[in-house]
């Protein structure tokens, strides 16, 4: 008997095998299945697709059927029993190279993440980043030659993914607070731990604090505080964990991702508030963005 509010055995099974659907989508993306289907206006048989992507025909047929089952591909059977496959509207929009709304790059990054996540039990046992053993790079994900910057191609993919998250969130971020009083703003780049920071009215730290440990965060926040003009503000954009750390689900998954690949973590609003207060900031205001956003926004004053 299912207990109200509790997971069913079906739910447990779906969680158990969740990686399988993810791997089907990742494989179809990495073999450019959806881009080839995109170019065939009236759909394509699995044999023709197999030829285009230089893969084994029966295996391609089975991959396509699994994609149909998931809802990534539509199938149509003609009077002779020949099946042709085409992208669903969502696949066209989000998983093809040519769509302005595409998040295919993010899907392709899951190849490395899959290897890294495969070492989660090791990360939990000793609390350490798993990138060296999983993908053979160092643990500073932003260092040249390491992590997401292991090659120019990976760096470009990472930037595209950051851009994708920003594109979705920025209309909400810019409306979270009235910023019209600020004349000069700086979205931090360069080397923010070492370089002198410009004197501005508004600093923006977006998806930056969650990358670092407390020692580095305190260094960065104290430098930002010193560089801010009196009365100026810091806009801190991070998705905040709920007080009990029981959601939002995407942020909990990000937090495990941070454990596996960085020295950072996700935090609650109160944890961000404490970090800001201990570095001199006052008048801390929080704006929660809609759940689908990858950020909430905190404004803190000097
Ligand atoms: C998670 S990304 C967020 C990017 C962007 N702010 C956004 O919201 O999409 C973290 C950014 O911090 C930058 N970064 C890492 N270490 C840095 C450093 N020492 N100095 C300046 N930027 C750094 C990375 O290059 C990367 O662009």
Automatic annotation (TrEMBL):
Q: Name one Pfam family in it.
A: Dimerisation
The species is: Paralvinella palmiformis
Protein name per its UniProtKB record? Acetylserotonin O-methyltransferase
Q: What is the lineage of its organism?
A: Eukaryota, Metazoa, Spiralia, Lophotrochozoa, Annelida
- Enzyme class, spelled out: transferase
Record's function text: Catalyzes the transfer of a methyl group onto N-acetylserotonin, producing melatonin (N-acetyl-5-methoxytryptamine).
Domain O-methyltransferase dimerisation, residue spans? 14-96
- The entry's active site is 210
Keyword set includes Disulfide bond: no
Q: Which PROSITE patterns match?
A: SAM_OMT_II
């Amino acid at each position: 008997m299912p207990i109200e509010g509790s997971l069913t055995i079906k739910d447990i099974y779906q969680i158990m095998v969740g990686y399988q659907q993810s791997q089907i989508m990742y494989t179809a993306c990495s073999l450019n299945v959806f881009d080839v289907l995109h170019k065939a206006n009236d759909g394509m048989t699995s044999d023709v697709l197999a030829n285009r992507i230089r893969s084994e025909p029966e295996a391609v047929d089975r991959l396509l059927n699994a994609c149909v089952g998931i809802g990534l591909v539509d199938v149509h059977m003609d009077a002779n029993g020949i099946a042709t496959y085409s992208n669903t509207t969502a696949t066209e929009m989000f998983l093809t190279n040519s769509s302005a709304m595409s998040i295919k790059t993010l899907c392709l990054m899951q190849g490395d993440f899959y290897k890294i996540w495969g070492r989660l039990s090791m990360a939990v046992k000793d609390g350490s980043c798993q990138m060296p053993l999983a993908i053979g790079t160092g643990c500073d994900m932003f260092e040249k030659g390491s992590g997401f910057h292991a090659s120019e191609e990976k760096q470009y993919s990472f930037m595209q993914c950051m851009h994708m998250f920003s594109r979705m969130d920025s209309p909400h971020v810019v409306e979270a607070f009235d910023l019209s009083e600020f004349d000069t703003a700086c979205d931090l780049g360069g080397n923010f731990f070492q370089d002198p920071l410009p004197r501005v009215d508004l600093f923006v730290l977006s998806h930056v604090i969650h990358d670092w440990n407390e020692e580095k965060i305190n260094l960065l926040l104290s430098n930002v505080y010193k560089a801010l003009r009196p009365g100026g503000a810091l806009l801190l954009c991070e998705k905040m964990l709920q007080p009990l750390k029981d959601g939002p689900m995407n942020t909990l998954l990000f937090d495990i991702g941070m454990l596996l690949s960085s020295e950072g973590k996700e935090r609650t609003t109160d944890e961000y508030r404490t970090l800001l207060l201990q570095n001199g900031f006052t008048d801390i205001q929080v704006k929660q963005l809609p759940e689908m956003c990858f950020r909430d926004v905190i404004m803190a004053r000097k």
